[in-house]
Records
---
Amino acid sequence: MQTANLLPLVLVIAVVAYALAYTRSRSVAEPLGGIRNLKALPFYYAARAALWCAIPALILLGAWAAFEGKVIQNMVVSSLPAEVAPQSPGEASLIVSQISNVAEGKLDPTRVPEAVLGAADLLQNLRAESSNFKTTLVILIAVLGSAFAWTRVQPHINARENVERTLRWLFFACAAVAILTTVGIVLSVIFETVRFFGKVPITEFLFGTSWSPQTALRADQVGSDGAFGMIPLFTGTLLISAIALLVAVPVGLMSAIYLSEYASKRGRAIIKPLLEMLAGVPTVVYGFFAALTVAPFIAGVADMIGLNASVQSALAAGLVMGVMIIPFVSSLSDDVINAVPQNLRDGSLALGATQAETMKNVIFPAALPGIMGGIMLAASRAIGETMIVVMAAGLAANLTANPLDSVTTVTVQIVTLLTGDQEFDSAKTLAAFALGMMLFIVTLILNIIALHVVRKYREQYD
Amino acid sequence: MNTMNPTVTSETGAGVVEDKVAPVKEERPAEAELEEGVTVGTPYSDDPKFKLRNVEVFYGESRAIKNISLDIARNEVIAFIGPSGCGKSTFLRCLNRMNDSIDICKVKGSLQLDDNDIYDPSRDVVELRARVGMVFQKPNPFPKSIYDNVAYGPRIHGLANRKSDLDDIVENSLRKAGLWNEVKDRLDATATGMSGGQQQRLCIARTIAVSPEVVLMDEPCSALDPIATAKVEELIAELSESYTIVIVTHSMQQAARVSHRTAYFHLGHLVEVNETNKVFTSPEHNMTESYITGRFG
């Protein structure tokens, strides 16, 4: 049976187990004089039965799905006769795909060697066997789990504790998924980065001021020597992010103050969702807005006052990005400002402070950690933003602080390095991982700085 | 105590009805017994700090204060008592317009501080609140240092030109609040780390640092233990020499201990105002009597 069918089946068994355990706990309680003589409510006995039925079965199902392919593949490959047995990993993957294509009928069987045909038969058999075996095992475990839970429906056994403990592990597992994913990403990036530094010296990458990631396909190619200096990319990123934050932080903060302190309840209920809609606009839409409307406008204005502006400019990308991240600042700040207790406001107002003085002296310091959180979120968004920059700021890696020049950012370069046909062990593609690593480190440092700022200046209430 | 309160006359309120009402036996007197705008006792004064006439407060549609007229005399301590929800806090918050921040709250009638209308649209609320300070039910020190808490008001109003002036104001206020000896070595510590009673006295110090003429206190001791309460009450007695104090309290003993006059509120009506001694020994209105003898409330 397919996993897709097995999954609902397990759930059905779990529901049946739930119902059976529920009925049984009631009937066990009957002669004792009601459910209050049980150690736990019937719901807990039933929930425990469902959990014990579903969780082991699902774990088995997951493990099977994860390892089935690899195991079968190894068995098939090792069954191949010596003359067609693969010599290198490349050959192995070729032959495996050949075998599975034959097995699935995508490849004409007459055009492959005898040995592959045999292997394809074997593959099909193994797959069928595995599927049957899996189905039997999963159902068996689900039923066994339910049966065990059913026998444990006894008045002196506290099912509530079992359920609580299981749930705690479940919650922990969910939290662990997020952490493990991050760790996995970081590790994979680190390995590739180390490989990159084997090809390009780390000092050149860190301190080089020129970025032109070409690698030679042939030894005699023209312009084949690439330059991998990350400085122009990071200055570009910082320039655009700084412009974006210069727009988003004041505007966002002040709109948050307006929303929380001055706007009427009705006004707030209308304005806040509208502001939040800004964050919901796809970035590609912002991108063409920036590229087709803002950038030419800026170039025109700069021309008028005698400045030389490029058609794609950091300023255009930064301004539009700033508008995009306003809601990150305003919405979060509004929430934390609202969370500052009313009695602090009253205390300040009763001393004759105006609303603005109260805001500046009392509310703002108390809300600082949350506001900083909003700003950091906005900053990460700005640093990571790619689409607007590609469209409005260009691809040229200029080392400049002039916002009217076209610049490029780290994320944009990662995209261009990894799109299209690539060989995955050239310095060019590996550079993307090194850039990702640096980006990760930079945002980490920014977060640490923000944390320290908050710790220094916040005024903690209650 | 009453000698300190020479300005209250024994003139009775407009349209005060019978002194003696037939004793009522029921536990909870109905509102129907109360005649609107009628207050028994001595609600008026010759030398009023506050002159409040026909005050009505609305929360949206509902009328929380029903046609109350009252004078608050200069340098007196007047206590507002009454069951929960009777409007005493609402009425108190009219005196420095703290109700302004509640959108649906509307105040009608004439409220004058030293013959100037409090609710005049052109009135500067900042100046009003600098003159009429307020201490709240729950101690609400700012999450700043003790020094900054007391210096907050003076800084806003520019009361000190030099740092040394500000230091003096802070020290004097803390001394008046009886807190100086406890905190003089840790003025830089955060105020939120103090005990509840200290926090409340700090809030009082913070209020008097602005040199107000009136201090409003909204159940200032309800969150404090008996020892802290005693300290705050002592403080009120000292402050009464230089300030007009209006105190809302749930504790009748407290009203009896600290106030010159006591006003009894019931369901938005001001039922009786009299010298505190009289209210607690021989109240004129039967409902006041019921309340102070604990028959309801």
Note: Residues 3-158 of chain A form one domain.
---
Amino acid sequence: MDTVDLVRMLIHDARSELSADPRISAEIDAELAACQRRLDEPLRVALAGTLKSGKSTLLNALVGEEIAPTDATECTRVVTWFSRSATPRVDLTHDGGQHTALPVNRAAGRLRLDLGPVSADRVERLEVGWPSSLLDQYTLIDTPGTSSNSYDVSARTLKFLTPDEGSCPADAIVYLMRSLHSTDVTLLRSLHEHAGTGRGALGIIGVLSRADETDGGRTASLDAARQLSTQLRTDRQLAGLHRDFLPVSGLLALRGQTLRQREFVTLFQLAALPPDVLEAALVSPGRLMATDLAIATPDREQLVATFGMVGIRIAISLICSGASDAPALATELVRHSGLDQLRETLSTRFGSRNRQLKAHSALRTLRSILLRHRSPRTVRVFRSVDRLLADNHCFTELRLLAGLAALPVPEPTRIALDHVLGGRGTSAATRLGLPPDASPTHTRAIALRAIRYWHDQLGEPLLDQPTARTYQAAIRSCEAIIAS
Amino acid sequence: MSVTTDADARTDSRSGSTVPMTELLDQLHALTDAARRPDLGARLAQARTRVTDPRLRIVVTGQTGQGMSTLVESIIGAPMTAALPAGPVVVSYADSDFVRPIDVGSPGADAGPVPRVEIGTPHDLLAQGVVLIDAPGTSGMDSARASAVLSLLPGADAVLFVSDASQEYTQPEIAYLRQIQQLCPTVIGVITKIDLYPRWADIQQANRTHLTNAGLDIPLLPLSAVMSETALRCHDTELAVESGVPQLMDFLRHRVVGDADLVLRNAVVNDVRFVADHLAMALNAELDALNDPRNGAELVQRLEQARQAADQLRQRTANWQVVLGDGVTELTVDVEHDLRHRLRNVVREADANIMTSDPAKRWEEFGTWINGRITESVQENFVLAHTRSRDLAAKVATRFAEEGKVAVPQLHLDYTGSILDPVQSLEPLDSHKAGMIQRVISSMRGSYGGVLMVGLMTSLAGLALVNPWSIGAGVLLGANTFWEDRKTQTARRQAEAKAAVARLMDDVIFQIGKESKYRLREAQRILRDHFTATATEMLRSADDALRAAQEANQLHTEQRAGRIGEVHNCLSELRQLRVRAAALVAAR
């Protein structure tokens, strides 16, 4: 029986104990029922970051369809939930619990969210249901950008991520930023503090977004973004905070996944131009439209609108280096964008700890409910909840994994730690670096050897505290393998 | 600012406009010398120095990574070669390219407000006396750096605020713009990288909306340095126009340089008028007396009246001095109160911060935070002092001459450069944990008491002194002592931390208070000297007119004719000068 089943049982117990109590209203029971349902729902991942950091574009790239509206200026104004659904639907909750189903308005492959007569400040919840394999695993939450000039828009996000009372509804946060700004440090710090008090999201994945634009939009931008991400690992201002940022270009990833034959043909024609003509045409959007080329103007307009100048340049350089048909270009674009790394990180960090994270969230909610309605009948349940909450090694692992890049250890040790702590997957074989079909006795023996190894490492007299803590966690992870 | 390159070259290039002004001032100076009025001569000399040093400082600033340096490069049309250190870069005119570090005497100091590198390059915009200062990008991060950039602004004639077309203005940017505009009224918003973002026009519009909402009136100029560079390479004038750089240059040339020129001309013309009026007053009086000796007595009477008026003026000076005195006292109290209030808020925040957990662990981080907050408060306080003293100057000026036509002197109180240097930094906190042995001993002491107490009691029941009960009590009391010890230690450190903050604040208030008082007194002195001088000049003119008329009355007839001619000549020369001065402004 794993944690989720245990939690389910505890919630069931709590419900039956509380339902015998006449003072308890139906409302509490509904809360408990919601808590139970949460266990069956996918993990909730929120995308957060400052204004125009590319949250909606990244969300679209992750899903592979343009379901979050994007624009050149500030666009997302309310917190929007994207969850799995058999058919597309848009549900709006507003003005104290009124539900309205909005029409699914899709033009040129892009979903349009029109709130109609309801103003943004009256919206309680906007939920988009969409059939998508990614949404089966995660419920994605798009938040409006912080540091916006519209104060109420930023306030909505802050209220969602770091609520004054209650806990953050998201289980994990993907934090996007373009370069480090003091407002990012402030928000990261407050997220960190919220997580510390047990009211915030349990994990953060950092993303250096719009990576294609980092170095003034030249083709080497992604390298520049990688460099910046390495610098951030040792940045003094992020001391004690999350400092591992993956460079990702949401635009390239999205274009790769939604590439049409027509777009490819236009790009291919452009790539076939003599270099000097091409260079002259790509100087500015105006030039590209004005140059006399054998490519239809609407096609060019479409390309500039979807790819942007940076995207066009990168796509052309990919075509020149060998992507000769649309599928090849699409694959290259996605590979280039860094989306795969992000997906992988999402799945190894959160996907494989999915059940533990959800169980923990549910336990936290259950505990707060029980705390509000103390009764002698629930003492036993309460104790079990506390006992289960005490086992938070999973979160220790997540936290240490995020800080792994900054540890002063040799590279092989870092890789070994990444494995043991479950950074590459949480199965016993992956953690110990064994083939998947290793026998239990062998696994056990290797785990014992690993424990001894990390113990020896701990004996090092000059060890600094973060490293020592990581080694201890590694030992604890190996012990868990032996115990199971 | 140690920028002294090729002043001649720059003056030469503007000679078209400055030479007539200097000539005018020199001629008038000769006339004042002839009239034996060194006080008016000094005023003209001052105006002359202003005309001959027409340097125009333009600061380029913005948040990190928005393409500030690239913008400067594209303005001067040359790459800024070599790895430049962090810190402002000064770009000014030179006959040939050069790059040289500026010796500021303290090589250890970090990127402060003092420029580190000076670049010279021959460029026609720079030849017009423009000096570009490429300030390092701020990320709003360490407020020390942001305030270093802000301290460059009061002396600047214009500020280019750079933000790229990838996104509209964020809230921190608008806040920064507000601060900039308080310090330098001429701000130009530049939107860069329009070659990359097809929707830059939307961004410009959004920025315009944000500026309007914030009540800021700033021109927005979109441009692309890359396009300009390509245009230059391919000699493509059309692309150059599209790049928006020529438009910015035109703007700088006509609006900024032009405006500065106009301000300068107006000032010169005003000075010329003022001096010419005063000279003419004496000459006209003399002429009246010479032309009609019978009217002499009446004239002298009239002049007596004028003198009385001048005397009244002097009395009124007493009045304005009272206003100035009162104003300064009030200002000093307000500024000091404001500083104390701001710092008290910092202390309150710091105390709340300290009480959240053991401060020893994060003392260094706390130190940086509190230093940033202090710098910020002091900066804001000085800006307040600056604006308030400007208001005071204007108030005194209106009191001094009801028509309000009195010049107000320049004041610079808001420079914070290295003002916090003499302040001691936050003292280190004793962060060692008490030794384990120490704590074990004290818990043993606690447990000993427990064992003895309960052991004695239970020994009455016939048990041994050391028995399970007494051991249990010992363990409990020992643990209790251990935890108590720890709590006391945290509390002690928190108290120490608070005391350290209080001591730091004491030091800050002492140093800043001293500096602030000194500056306010300096401002008071400048205002007093300025207005006293103006009053004396007026009085002297009235006296001179009186004396000249009296002398003219006593002249013989034959001498009289000659003197009338001389005076006529002087007056016509003065008239000519005035006409020429007026033409200087009208030509614009």
Note: The first strand of chain B starts at residue 56 and ends at 62.
